[in-house]
Amino acid sequence: MLNIVDNQQEQKIAPLLRLGFRPFFLFGSLFATLSMALWLLTLKGVVSIEPLNGMLWWHSHEMLFGFTAAIIAGFLLTAVQTWTNIPSIKGGQLLLLVCLWFLARLLILSGSTSALPLAMIADLMFLPLTAFFVGQRVVKIRQYRNLIFIPVLVLMSVMNLFTYLPSLGFDAAWQSRGMQGMTLLVTFLVAFLGGRVIPMFTANGTKTTKVLPIKWLEMSALASLVFVLVLLLLKDVADITMLTAIVCLTAAVLHTIRQWRWRIWVTLNVPLVWSLHFTMLFIPIGLGLLSLHFFGASITLSTAIHSLTVGVIGGMILAMMSRVSLGHTGRMLHVGKLMSFAFFAVVISAIVRSIAVAIWPQWSIQFWVFAGCLWCVAFGLFFFKYLPVLSAPRVDGRPG
């Protein structure tokens, strides 16, 4: 990374607030661990709490718009500095954004109905503010290639608004539209970024030739996710079950071909690379389960969606946080046995929560708990392993 920040000025800023990935990766991973643990304790009847809009809404919403949104913000606020060579937000501005995120989480968990308006405002401001900070820098140097992230963040904010509409008196179906829409938007973002970086990371990490993209396949695979998103949003207002099943199956095939070309088998000795490949496999797996659901198989929509939320979103977040945190703190791109185990744990969590539940639905509760425990292990290990990394200055003395 170029030395684009005044190092003397940066020394006056606490290390945790020097770049977006630091607070959002650290607090996001802690939130992922604690909120899943709280969900499991509630599921087993050990504790009883009543957050805004109920416990099921809280679990779904906060995994997507609390945890996932925080990691997306941290990643983009860091990446935009690399893309544009313009310093990203840090210090007071970054602290303000982190506090806004914290405020929304606390108000939602409080369960106070009188806090709903403020909770909505704080929560719905977070992604648009992130989009502003990212877009401001991209537009300044006319780097329009990376503007794609701005409409995606705006659409995510719209999906977040949808989840609140039932509490304002609108139809209950808006909640599922918001949750499923966010899931597909993040899956699209993962697929888009994966196509950019995974072939390169694979070549660099395994010392093999980089696989070049096939333009029609890349465009078709990404477009198929957009079609799935639209069909999921429309499924409650039109009889499009068979069309949705066919589109999901087509999308699964396209993504299988796309990822087969990336040669997962050459990465098995490089945890920072195979973790990316394995999480991407859950895109065709999740789309395949969605297809089976709409074709009439006894697979719930929730089970299919969890293949994407746990496998694709959770797995990619863990892998990318690990890589970005090492690279942007001046460390070697190498993880030890603990993080390798964490990568393994989140993959098994996704398999248990989706595939195992689909095959043996009579054991659903047990599988949910086991998968949730593995999730807590994976993200808890990240938090404790990277706490000293993210809260300390770069080891090479450079800004960031």
Automatic annotation (TrEMBL):
Coiled coil: none annotated. The chain crosses the membrane at residues 21-43, 63-80, 92-109, 115-135, 147-165, 185-204, 216-234, 240-257, 305-326, 338-359, 365-384. Keywords: Membrane, Transmembrane, Transmembrane helix. It comes from the Bacteria. InterPro entries: NnrS. Pfam families: NnrS. The keyword Transmembrane helix applies. This is NnrS family protein.
